[in-house]
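Long-time lurker. I teach an intro course on protein structure, and each term I like to show students one example going from raw sequence to a predicted 3D structure in token notation. This year I'd like something fresh instead of my usual example. Would anyone be willing to generate the tokens for the chain below so I can use it in lecture? Attribution to the forum is fine with me.
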Amino acid sequence: MNSASAKQEATRVTLIGMWLDLLLGLAKLIGGIVTQSFALITDGIHSLTDAITDLFVLLVARVARADPDEEHPYGHGRFESLGTIGMGVVFFTTAGILLYDSYQRLQDTTAIPVPALSGIAIALVSIATKEWIYQYTMRVAQRLNSSLLKANAWHSRSDAISSVAVVVGIIAAQQGYTWMDTVAGIFVALIIAKIGWELCTDSLRELVDTAIPMQRLQQLKECILAVEGILGITNLRSRFSGGKIILEVRLLVDPRITVSEGHQLGEAVSHELTGRFSDIDDVIAHIDPETHANPPNQVSLHQVLPDHQQIIADIRNAWSELLADDEITNVSLHYLENGIEVDLKLNRNEISEQLAAKLKQAIGQFSYIANLRVYSKLYETRLDQPLS
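-- Reply from a regular --
Happy to contribute to a lecture. Here you go:
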């Protein structure tokens, strides 16, 4: 699904939820006042905070689903995480207010009125409506893999659960336990606080670049190694952004393949991962020749080599008395574990064994060169034995 379609679907489900929250919130507030149910009034406040967070979701989701730009080349997914934390803070604030009001009421239980039974009908309508919008929002959230919409769905579910507590509180108060109506309000507040905690911790883990679980990481490694041409993985790093996974992987390949072939293998891995796993947003593949798979504490030959230009200059200088510059078409270097393998392409139709031997002898002075292969226009003369 493209970003435009995702925006439209996220907006539609959130608008539906917002209007339902406004209607239910007002109905429960008015009903709570009329029936003298503190729990129902508290539940109405909860529904109105849902409407506020719905509006918040609309604004944040619009930013989070925007395409990457110059200032945000990795996209705007982290805005969704920030928005989710904001919602968690709203949950905590709401819970704190409700708990404080409940505490004040419990100071004098004799002054607590008995709520009317008619309040139960309003609570039952709220339960059915909020459970429906929860299921609808969660389906869209899972399809879009949106943590913000999931948070909003759970906010709706918490409202449905709190309405259940309202029903229990009103029934108990009718039986003479008037304080149960207030206890129902405390239960609502604790549910809200719990969900707020979970939303904040989940999003904070994303903001500090917490890796995906090891079991999932192993699943991704198996998928990568199944791609033909990939010899191993030296490193695989992961993080979340807006509910999506971003991977950075270092792939081991045959050191003699071309740069373009290595790039193609990286593209194949990216294609395989994003095609198989819908929650993977981007794959950054680095191609390493197989010889770079040394343990971290082992010094590689390549760490003590001259730079590339210096090596080419040294080789050409060693051949200066054997070859004219215009006879050398190309000099390629392959960095292998036992040293550098040199490919020499000459602008000649034939190459004598004597010339190949002299070329080999001329660069034998360089300890880091392990092998020489010489190519002519028509055929290849190869020296596979190590240089001494």
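Some talking points for your students: Residues 326 and 347 are 8 Å apart (CA to CA). The radius of gyration is 34 Å.
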